[in-house]
Amino acid sequence: PRGTFRAKHAELHDDPYVLFLSRLHFKKGLDYLADAFALAAKSVPRLRLVVAGPDDGAREPFVQQIGRLGLTERTHVVGPLYGGDKIAAFVDAAAFCLPSRQEGFSVAVTEALACGIPVVISDQCHFPEVQEVGAGRVVPCDAKATGDALAQVLGDGSAAQRMGDAGAKLIRERFTWPKVAELTMKMYEKFGTK
Fold first, then answer.
1. Which pTM does this prediction carry?
2. Rounded to the nearest 5°, which phi and psi values hold at 92?
3. CB burial of residue 138 (10 Å; 0-12, 13-18, 19+)
């Protein structure tokens, strides 16, 4: 239910937050995220950032960068989240952001979409369906583009709701196990098994 994550993190108050959930690694674009958050925070004064995931070498540089930007009080590095805690973080978020330098198939993006929140991701996440169905923004791997996209998504509540709905629909229609199995069977029928 909504409010579950906030109940465990009173420091968030009722403020909207952007969620980053992934390994804290250089390739995930935390440096871009810090600068993008600084830009978006100017447009959304109460905006907060929740960074969740295990440290893989990028936590300390990120925390230092956030400090230099004067955003320590609005940034919450909560460590890894699993199971219900992870889903609760998605459900309560105003948006999900992954400005990654490189992704294969991102489970985190898929989970965010399934939870019905708009996403802002880099084009290096290789998830063009997000833009195709209007479930968020796919932007170049760049802090300014990411910050501008976050500000746009968060600046219009009704548009954000439509994006979240479109993302949930995308997952139901294309990425559930029955849909993947159906597509796999069609490919076998089309190309055969020689």
1. 0.92
2. -85, -10
3. buried
